[in-house]
Write a structure and sequence with these properties.
The chain has 4 helices and 13 strands. By secondary structure, the protein is α+β, with helices and mostly antiparallel strands. It is elongated and about 55 Å long. The two termini are 36 Å apart.
Length: 176
Amino acid sequence: MLDSAPERLFSTDWYILLCKPNQNHIAARHLTRLPVEVFMPYHMATIRQNLHFRRQRRPLFAGYIFIGADTERMPWRRIRTTPGVSQVIGSGSTGPSKVPSEIIAGLVQRCDEHGMLQAEADLAIGDQIKITSGPFAEFVSTVEHIDGDQRIHALLDLLGAKRRVAVDACHVTRLG
């Protein structure tokens, strides 16, 4: 799906497509038939199903797909009419807005060969972290334990008591 050679990423113009609700995968499958690069990073999300919680692979940017190609090779008419695609993101009269290739390259470097977002490799027990998303967003804590599933266990001061919480490593950043 994505040629992850760094020089190729920087020489490609990247754009964002808005997909129809729950049709990311349909759009991605059809876009791979066009002469464009398709990039849709994933992460593991905890979802509630009935009374149980389970982890499931979900698109990191729900409803959006990145596409890349040389501007003169971009088949805009076919892209706009691809099943699952709602619209190309951009400002009306000036055309589609480009995404800086450095952002795409950074995302690709943090993903494995299947597009799954990987945790920061430099986290260790005792590191100061800041939780970036989820119910504990903006909390600062210290890494207590890292388990095999790359879940970070940290102590948070909640309601005047220390509580142990587990968060995905992709939802934290290391401080200092």
